[in-house]
Amino acid sequence: MRRTQPIVLQMLANSINKNRVAHAYLFEGEKGTGKKEMGLLFAQTLFCEKPLDGMACQECTNCKRILKQNHPDVHLLEPDGLSIKKEQIKNLQEEFSKTGVESKKKIYIIIHSDKMTPNAANSLLKFLEEPNSETTAILITEQLHRILPTIISRCQIVSFQPLPKDVLKKQLLDEDVPSSMASLVVNLTNNYREALELSCDEWFAQARSIVLKLYEVLRKSPFQAMVKLQEDFYVHFKEKHQIDRALDLLLLIYKDLLYIQLDKKGQAAYPDQWSEWKSDALQASTNRLSEQMTNVLESKRKLNANMNAQLLLEQLVLKLQG
């Protein structure tokens, strides 16, 4: 957490050290940014028997029980099916009306708090309006705009930043993901789990290869590119979401050509292709690369507007050649 969310960690540590813990926090940010993990770490620190530098030791009984989610005074609430229901909030309120089992403190963490039903949200609002001085609430969401404004106003908002690419890439390399694949997936997602799944997905590995081959023939002639579409592209990319992924992979190629011009290899999605693409990049104008990226993005927009995928791709190939 010190590397992935240093600002959040420092802010929460300061609130504990200065004895200014708020009665309610709202952790918001993209999927995979460590909100749940930070919530548990915050709970551990509040209950830790021997904190180190103001943070949880991770070794005491309380720290271990909270991590395993079996501490009697720390409660996690997640959607029951597709939503968090009023009955779940009611049960939580009843639990918190009792005295803490092992201390006066109690913490509850609501995962996907944006998925509360209207009745559940209104019940929680009443709970937040009359906070117990020893109770701390942590609401977690990836969809801040779906939380009731009246709930937001009663919480201290803590924003989580996307995981830095270099940190995510190092995590993948530590899992023995090949460097070329790690470089690609960190340009597609900030989520560690999703990045790891993509890295191990045979379909995705083939998708990378097919898109790279398409780019190679795009440099030769529109006819060859059209043949390539028929030979393996349409066979591999059948569903709408698969075609959208292919367009993402293609877009990253043109971004890399721009990075070559700017000498920013550290940001490359395909660093293993740089020596081969260097002459292409140096011969292309920045305006032309910008135009090609715009064409790919426009194709993504049309795809999501349900334009015929085959017609869309054939038009794109001609424009990229253009």
TrEMBL record:
Q: Does the keyword tRNA-binding apply?
A: no
Q: Name one Pfam family in it.
A: DNA_pol3_delta2
- Residue span(s) of domain DNA polymerase III delta subunit C-terminal: 239-320
**Which molecular-function annotation in GO is an example for this chain?**
DNA-directed DNA polymerase activity
What does the record give as the reaction this protein catalyses? DNA(n) + a 2'-deoxyribonucleoside 5'-triphosphate = DNA(n+1) + diphosphate
Could you list this entry's UniProt keywords, alphabetically sorted.
Answer: DNA replication, DNA-directed DNA polymerase, Nucleotidyltransferase, Transferase
Q: What class of enzyme is it?
A: transferase
Checking SUPFAM superfamilies in the record gives: P-loop containing nucleoside triphosphate hydrolases
Give the Enzyme Commission number.
2.7.7.7
PANTHER family from the xrefs? DNA POLYMERASE III SUBUNIT DELTA (PTHR11669:SF8), REPLICATION FACTOR C / DNA POLYMERASE III GAMMA-TAU SUBUNIT (PTHR11669)
Can you name this protein?
A: DNA polymerase III subunit delta'
